[in-house]
Amino acid sequence: MERLSIVAGRKNGGVFGDLNLACDSAIHDLVWRAGQNLAKALLRNNGGVSVPGESMKFPAHLYPACAPLPAPMADHLLLLERRRYRHRPAQRPDDQEMARIVLTRIKRARTLVFEYLHPFVLADQKRQERGESRTFPNADWLLETLAQYTPGQGGNAEATLDFWQKKGLLRREKTRGLLDITSVAALLVARITERTLQRNWLPSSLEETEPSWWCYGRVSPGMPIQALPVPLPSDLPSSMVLWTAWQGAIWDGTWRTVGEAFLCRWAGSPSLHDLSLWQQDLPRKIQAVQHDSFFGRPPVQAVLLQEARSDVLLDIAQKGIGCYAESDW
Fold this sequence. Notes:
Elements: E1 4-6, H1 32-45, H2 71-83, H3 95-129, H4 139-149, H5 158-166, H6 181-193, E2 213-218, E3 226-230, E4 241-244, E5 256-258, E6 262-266, H7 272-276, H8 281-288, H9 298-319, E7 321-323
């Protein structure tokens, strides 16, 4: 596999002025192409999807491409696709093609789910700003929405939601509180991805410790791209840049939208040293005025550092993660 790298880009305006940074003309399409090329390369390097008996799983490093699905939910969709060819094995696509088909369906479903959910989430946030209680998402709304995508005439009862909650397939903020929005999104993505089965379209259960979804991360340029669980581990390096194609990550307030394709964030609160791993000009400028009578004051330095974190992250995201892998999916 060719080298995958992150290259800092160009920042116009802002308190630091016009910064001319090294850029590579081969880098394009922001971070999405990086994630997809990484996914394909990992599929090939792992020899495709393993199929021991009836089980069928994505390679672990492909789980970020399946966000917001938990890994077992994504694997179950892949297994269902394989089962379609149980009685016609000669027509079954190879494992890599089958994974590509399912990933394409997941991508389309998550776009639809985000665009449908987002106005409801924004309306609920405005209710909170007015001092009113939250009401979304609730069981009635989810049952009504699921009915639109459930094949046949059958729907789901609230007892089904309780059963899914018991099995870990649907999570709530509290035991009998509002439904967890990311869990609801994952359920809808799975339902829309698998449109033909009325039953058994979900895995049997999810462990309580199962991550909600996965994102990509990288500690510094030249270091390997990693798949990381969400909620994030508490011991990630502050210099690590995280990114995801799941637009609903914006709902927790810690992710930053980059264009229309990706969201990104720092794993922690990077120091000047951490920032210098990605881009040296801004940290150097801040360090140069540390003894200035005004800019060297601790409150001013704190503001400059915070601004630098934002600017460096935007620089990285605008130029994207360099892709020297093979052609796209």
